[in-house]
Amino acid sequence: MIPIAVVGMKLSFRIDEAYSLKDKRSVIKSIIHKMHRKFNISIAELDKQDMLNQGVIGISVVGNEYQQCHTVIDKVLNEIEETYAIEVYNIERMEM
């Protein structure tokens, strides 16, 4: 039997540069598209779709080893924080 590791993260953040819902959606769509393309992860907006300056996204990684999955999740988080004008205020991690 092949081992399977699933690691997830729920990321809640404030968007500093959002002055309208259109601005907010643009930032979130950019995060989702770029992170999926760069890291081959599952990523989606989960909550607070109608709140102007807040966003919640979920990220998951499936692999053979938990350590490998955690490494990818950490790289995604670092990339998001370095690339976008957001303030992360809550991170929930989970593994299966």
From TrEMBL:
InterPro entries per the UniProt record, alphabetical: DUF503, TT1725-like_sf
Gene3D superfamilies attached to this UniProt entry: TT1725-like
Pfam families in UniProt: DUF503
Highest taxon in the source lineage: Bacteria
Residue stretches spanning the membrane: none
Name the UniProt record assigns to this protein: DUF503 domain-containing protein
Organism in which the protein naturally occurs: Desemzia incerta
Lineage: Bacteria, Bacillati, Bacillota, Bacilli, Lactobacillales
